[in-house]
Write a structure and sequence with these properties.
The chain is mostly helical and 222 residues long. The protein contains eight helices and no strands.
């Protein structure tokens, strides 16, 4: 079985690709977007979040079209997604928690913490798999759909949400509509989470079988 060190070293084989660069840029965009949002530049925050979502779509297309799929990309891409999603969810929770003009969203703000909990759990699971010599698999279709929906919903909120929306002076989305969209996104996120378990179970079973084979081989050698 590969050790954690071997597993990490293996990630950097053929790592110099355009998709990996885009994923790294998305990670850099996270603090930029957060600072813009907190400092009162929601329009620029929306722009950065849009670029992040667009690059997420583009890097996957490039990776598949030009056969630039790499083990590092399978880590960087979801890591960039998780950092973005956690940051946006925390920011919206904090802003809506202190909302003065929208008591409905203030009461609803705790729902954003469900995104945070789900993504933190995924990060812990990925780190644990790497620590035992396993590499997390690429995102399944459920994860891709959930991520796409999340970006759309959060962009909509940051653009038109009460008190936080960059374009709220033109049109402010009703709180009920925002709540429905967020709940739909939450459901999709947890469907993606549950779809993750069969793959993890398969990896663990394969690891168990390999360990047993190695032990049997050692016993035969002795």
């Amino acid at each position: 079985m590969q050790s954690l060190g071997d597993n990490i070293k293996g990630l950097f084989k053929n790592w110099k690709t355009v998709p990996n660069l885009l994923s790294a840029l998305r990670i850099v965009m996270v603090p930029i977007m957060a600072v813009l949002f907190v400092k009162g530049y929601p329009l620029w925050a929306v722009f950065v979040l849009f670029l992040s979502g667009l690059s997420d779509f583009v890097d996957g297309k490039i990776a598949r079209r030009f056969n630039q799929i790499s083990d590092l990309g399978k880590i960087l891409d979801p890591l960039a997604d998780k950092l973005t999603q956690i940051t946006v969810a925390v920011l919206l929770f904090l802003f809506f928690r202190s909302a003065q003009e929208s008591p409905e969203m203030r009461a609803f703000s705790w729902v954003f913490l469900l995104f945070v909990g789900k993504e933190l759990f995924m990060v812990v699971m990925s780190v644990w798999l790497l620590s035992i010599g396993l590499r997390p698999g690429a995102a399944e279709i459920y994860g891709k759909v959930a991520t796409f929906a999340y970006y759309l919903v959060m962009l909509f909120i940051v653009a038109f949400g009460p008190e936080v929306g960059a374009f709220r002076n033109f049109w402010t989305a009703p709180s009920l509509l925002l709540q429905i969209l967020v709940v739909v996104s939450v459901v999709l996120c947890f469907i993606a989470l549950f779809s993750y378990f069969p793959g993890v179970w398969r990896l663990l079973q394969e690891r168990k079988q390999k360990l047993q084979q190695e032990q049997n081989q050692q016993g035969d050698d002795q």
